[in-house]
Amino acid sequence: MPNVIIRPDWHIPERRVTPERAYRDRRKFLRELGFAGGGLLAASLAARAADAKKLYPAARNVAFSPPDLKLTNERVFTTYNNFYEFSTDKEAVVDRVDKFVIAPWPVKIHGLCEQPVTLDAQELAAEFGVEERVYRFRCVEAWGAVVPWTGFELRKLLAKVQPKAGAKFVKFITAARPEQMPGIARLRGYPWPYTEGLRLDEAMHPLTLLVTGVYGKPLPKQNGAPIRVVVPWKYGYKSGKSLVEIELTDKQPKTLWETLSPEEYPFESNVDPAVPHPRWSQATERQVDTGDRIRTLPLNGYAAQVAGLYKK
After folding, report:
1. Angle between the 121-128 and 154-161 helix axes, to the nearest 10 degrees?
2. Domains, the chain
3. pTM over 0.70
């Protein structure tokens, strides 16, 4: 007769034991943020969440918000999302983010810089302050929107960490949590985590934002909470969501979409109506809420501000 082992009620299977490295790394991060215990952590997170909400709605910066732009319907834009970590179905993403935990959210800024730092996303918003800007948003799939983002200029954070002379690019690494992001397991051939990058001069441009809110509210999970980058003159896939690392480097980063299909998704990826995607024209775009088709502008309408970056 086989042995029958009766476990006590409190027994935890070995497979559920947290790996030592993950446990120690988490304790280290919480110590860095000043959290000594679970109760204090919960209280502090609640206080931080309350403080974060006070940042919204932020004052609109009219210098970066053309008055003739009509905002895209909020419900449409916040429920129509390219976020493959959750789903390849744009309208299904919003229904699959419920298990995604966005606090605490350490962001590591490191690499070729004098003052590397790890800060929580909410701390970043509070430290640098936020403002609202109305930007055109252009997806490589030939649809567009007009969006009121809330955030701060990336160059402020880069100035804080002080790039070294050898830094030429900024690499963005986003969250990859298969247990919370069901799309990752379905796309096993993808080079996760999602990685993107900019030249340092592009990252330092005043238009490049680190975004923590949209439509006067904290950023929803499906739109890249708690922090993402927005580069309005480039196709949307350059604007990485749910950032966990920002690295200064001397080498051009290998990005996810360029790795999968360099002919379709090159590193630069500036909006250019004269250069078609291999499978469709980029001359026009469909407005995502109304269905209206409008002419696409060079550099998505920001040529006056950024064309000088690309003069040979």
Report:
1. 100
2. 55-310 (3.90.420.10)
3. yes
Residue linked to tokens 């008055």:
67
162-219: pLDDT as tens digits: 999 999 999 999 999 999 999 999 999 999 999 999 999 999 999 999 999 999 999 9
Three-class SS state of 33? coil
- Coil, helix or strand for 5? coil
pLDDT at position 49 is 59
User: Amino acid letter at 21?
Assistant: R
From residue 301, alpha-carbon distances to 19, 167, 252, 298, 304 in Å are 49, 29, 26, 6, 8
Q: How far apart are CA 111 and CA 251, in angstroms?
A: 11
Whole-number Cα distances in Å, 240 to 62, 69, 95, 172, 268: 25, 24, 20, 7, 14
* pLDDT of amino acid 53: 72
Q: Which amino acid is present at 189?
A: G
Q: Cβ(182)–Cβ(256) under 8 Å?
A: no
